[in-house]
Write a structure and sequence with these properties.
Distance between the termini: 42 Å
Largest sheet: 5 strands, parallel
Oligomer: single chain
Order of helices and strands: HHHHHHHHEHEHEHEHEHH
Radius of gyration: 21 Å
Helix content: 55-70%
Length: about 280
């Protein structure tokens, strides 16, 4: 199948005036379009989410996410590799592996160096004393949120995570001062994630934010902020390494909370381990 940009070029003359506005933006800004959600693309092209949805389906994609994934893939082809700092198309596989591993290690080390122990202590106290723990994250950041849920689910803490934005929003409005939320966003400015964060703040829910940008809206909405650092300057490549740092932060919070809870959570962990073991041959 042709790339999204090729499909748009091929069908451009047959598109409606509204669809041409969307197509023109995507063709001229494929990277930005691949990182946008449907609301952002509709806003920047002065159209509607319905128009964007109809266009991508006209091109043969099942939904907007499928379209943006295909668009993102075209940005990762060899001719576009300069967006990855320090990686050249002529590098050997071993050299590429070394650079990726080194960057990943630096991201985790820089993240740890930038977090004060007092911040960990404040966050852990919020977590172990909360009534319910909600984990929120969308797009690439949903990986860290889901990983955190999978870990805290093994403890006696009542926790939840849902991948769907609407469900996250509904869960956010049900939380209160006695609860706690961990909100993850690499950029710290995803519109839907910020809507969740704003809802949590209105409900006076303590928010632990994990983002790569200390001046981002998410950081400003958070009671406690952890900055996932990386040594990359490009948004896309930076997201690769900051995800590892986000996972390390979540792992650290889980382990600290588990140790501090002691016997209170040992039975829950043991019961979960036993039931999982019973499914293995």
């Amino acid at each position: 199948m042709s790339s999204p940009v090729q499909l748009l070029k091929q069908s451009f003359d047959e598109l409606s005036r509204t669809n041409k506005k969307i197509a023109k933006y995507v063709m001229e800004n494929p990277q930005a379009a691949s990182e946008a959600n449907i609301e952002d693309l509709a806003e920047v092209t002065e159209t509607s989410t319905a128009s964007v949805s109809r266009l991508v389906k006209t091109l043969g994609y099942g939904n907007f996410r499928e379209f943006t994934l295909a668009l993102a893939y075209t940005q990762l082809r060899p001719q576009n590799l300069p967006i990855f700092k320090d990686i050249d198309a002529n590098d050997s596989l071993g050299t590429i592996a070394d650079k990726i591993f080194n960057s990943s290690q630096r991201a985790i080390q820089d993240t740890r160096a930038g977090i004060d122990e007092d911040e960990f202590a404040r966050a852990v106290l919020r977590i172990i004393h909360c009534r319910r723990l909600g984990l929120f994250g969308l797009g690439g950041s949903s990986v860290a949120a889901l990983d955190g849920y999978h870990k805290f689910l093994r403890t006696s803490i009542d926790c939840f995570y849902y991948p769907d934005f609407d469900v996250q929003l509904m869960e956010a409005v049900k939380l209160g001062e006695e609860d706690c939320a961990i909100v993850v966003s690499h950029s710290g400015k995803n519109r839907q994630t910020l809507k969740v964060a704003e809802t949590l703040k209105k409900r006076k829910v303590p928010v632990i934010g994990i983002t790569s940008y200390p001046d981002s809206p998410l950081a400003l909405h958070s009671d406690i902020t952890f900055i996932s650092s990386s040594d990359e300057s490009n948004y896309r490549s930076e997201g690769m390494y900051s995800l590892l740092a986000q996972l390390a932060i979540v792992d650290t919070l889980f382990m600290m909370a588990t140790v501090r809870m002691g016997p209170a959570t040992e039975d829950a962990i043991r019961n979960v381990q036993n039931i999982i073991e019973s499914t293995r041959t």
